[in-house]
Design goal:
Elements (H helix, E strand, L loop, with lengths): L13 E6 L14 H10 L4 E3 L5 E3 L2 E8 L2 E6 L13 H10 L16 E8 L2 E6 L33 E7 L3 E6 L12 E6 L3 H10 L4 E3 L4 H10 L3 E15 L9 H10 L2 H8 L4 E3 L22 H10 L14 E8 L2 H16 L2 E8 L1 H10 L4 E6 L7 H6 L17 H12 L3 H18 L2 E13 L3 E2 L16 E2 L2
Helix pairs in contact: 5-7, 11-12
Length: about 500
């Protein structure tokens, strides 16, 4: 990977990806941040993967069966080798998942395996998972990079997987260098390797693409930056509907927001179409609920908010908050919206502020660092807030976000939404292993939640990759994972 003479730091066979953040850990059992997970996708293979319909399908497993409600059996693919030449067996799979239920192993992912009682290698080709109770969404927890049996703490810095790329080097907060795995079981990558170059500043990432020192950026540029680059005619883009979900959240313990009519009024007052068209530059679609339309469990016949200021004002009147001076300047009441310091979110908050003013609601805006924002939301020190759920691929997300047992800080029901009927439906969906039954139950939950409005969905993100015109093989999945990079190459 010596320097070249044409302004690029790497030869043409190397693809340079500009990323916002450096990975925290190369061990897929530990590194849970987005930057680490993207690199895990290149270094490792999962036991199963998520396809374009957000269904769980085999990867290193040739088959995954559920012969009993609490028993799953995976048959392991033969002929797969780790980067050090070792053959993959069922023992590696059992070791990977066994460590995640080992009390002595520290991992932020352990919570996902609380219902896994045991895992064992039946023989070299077969792994058996035993659950403590039926859990229909368990297979998605098998989307986990498989590590070699006996892996130690060194895996965090010197990763060894079965993926399409091998680890070469890592310079903290600067770059990760990977070389192509010419013996990859699905066929060698068509490029010679990758450099994931850390460029924290969004404007600078745009400049890296403009001057050609980076080849592509995936979902790490603001719509305005992308629009400017396209107008200059120096780049190409590929888009794909995504699964990231931006929303306005409510604290239902607040006396004003405890009334569903007030929450619904806010939903009708916001011009979400304008946010998508102007702030997102069309690189999003208006959201109806946390489950994306791409999901097999999406309910397409749920209640949906439209932009209807008159309906918003009517609901506020019915809730007992009449406008004190008609079209005058006085507000019905005042609320506070907390958001991050991100420019995109601050501008979006200003638009929401203007829309709510038209309905007679005075909205105070407070922007803060993300850690502080999260702290306030978890502690309940908030009325309204805007956040984004990233990578919503499984309908069990409904349980995590809306079940009363998941109320923050124990879970991520941060708005303290409580509905006995929703709880009962989610409990049945969790226990069921019949996807037809689960879809019906999840559909009913989505219907109820849509009208109760503990969230107002704003938009689903459109995945966007911006890349140099000389590149071919650029595609995107709904989750915008990095696995497509093995197909990317430069025209001669």
């Amino acid at each position: 990977m010596a320097a070249c003479s044409q302004g690029r730091a790497y030869p043409p066979g190397i693809i340079v990806v500009a990323v916002a953040n450096a990975p925290s850990n190369f061990d897929p059992r530990i590194g849970s941040d987005e930057a680490s997970q993207k690199i895990h996708q290149l270094l490792y293979n999962h036991l199963v993967r998520i396809d374009d319909n957000l269904q769980v399908v085999p990867e290193l497993a040739e088959t995954l069966t559920n012969p009993e409600p609490t028993r799953y059996v995976a048959t392991i693919r033969r002929g797969v080798r780790f980067h050090d030449g070792r053959a993959l067996t069922a023992r590696d799979v059992a070791f990977t998942f066994g460590s995640l239920i080992d009390p002595a192993f520290a991992s932020p992912r352990k919570g996902a395996y609380r219902l896994l009682a045991s895992v064992r290698a039946v023989d070299d080709d077969t792994v058996e998972f035993i659950l403590k109770e039926p859990f229909g969404s368990f297979p998605i927890n098998l989307v986990m990079g498989i590590v070699p049996e006996g892996s130690t703490e060194s895996l965090a810095q010197q990763p060894v997987g079965t993926g399409p790329y091998k680890f070469v080097s890592y310079a903290p907060d600067d770059r990760t260098v990977l070389e192509s795995n010419t013996d990859y079981w699905q066929g060698a990558p068509v490029n010679d390797g990758l450099v994931l170059k850390v460029v924290p500043d969004e404007t600078m990432r745009g400049l890296e693409i403009r001057k050609g020192s980076a080849d592509l950026v995936v979902n790490d540029l603001a719509p305005d930056v992308i629009h400017t680059l396209l107008r200059e005619g120096k780049v190409r883009i590929e888009t794909r509907p995504g699964v990231d979900y931006a929303y306005l959240g409510f604290n239902l313990r607040d006396p004003l927001l405890a009334d569903a009519r007030v929450r619904q009024a806010i939903g009708f007052a916001i011009n979400r179409e304008a946010i998508v068209e102007y702030l997102r530059r069309g690189m999003a679609t208006v959201a109806s609920g946390i489950i994306p339309p791409l999901s097999w469990a999406f309910a397409d016949d749920t209640f949906k908010f439209t932009y209807d200021p008159a309906r918003a004002r009517q609901l506020l009147d019915e809730a007992g908050y009449p406008d004190p001076d008609g079209d005058g300047p006085q507000a019905r009441f005042r609320l506070t919206l907390k958001t991050s310091t991100s420019e995109v979110y601050r501008v979006q908050a200003a638009v929401i502020q203007r829309d709510l003013a038209d309905a007679g609601i005075d909205l105070e805006l407070r922007s803060m660092e993300l850690a502080t924002l999260f702290g306030d939301i978890i502690s309940g020190n908030v009325q309204l807030y805007t956040l984004q759920w990233v990578g919503v691929t499984d309908p069990d997300m409904l349980r995590r976000v809306f079940h009363s047992r998941e109320v923050s800080p124990a879970g991520v029901n941060r708005g303290h939404y409580i509905s006995p009927k929703v709880d009962a439906l989610l409990d049945r969906a969790t226990q069921s292993t019949d996807d037809v039954e689960r879809k019906g139950l999840f559909n009913e939950v989505q219907q109820i939640v849509a009208r109760d409005a503990p969230y107002v969905g704003l938009w689903y993100k459109t995945n966007v990759v911006v890349f140099q015109p000389s590149l071919e093989g650029v595609t995107l999945s709904p989750t915008a994972d990095y696995t497509f990079l093995r197909h990317v190459h430069r025209n001669p």
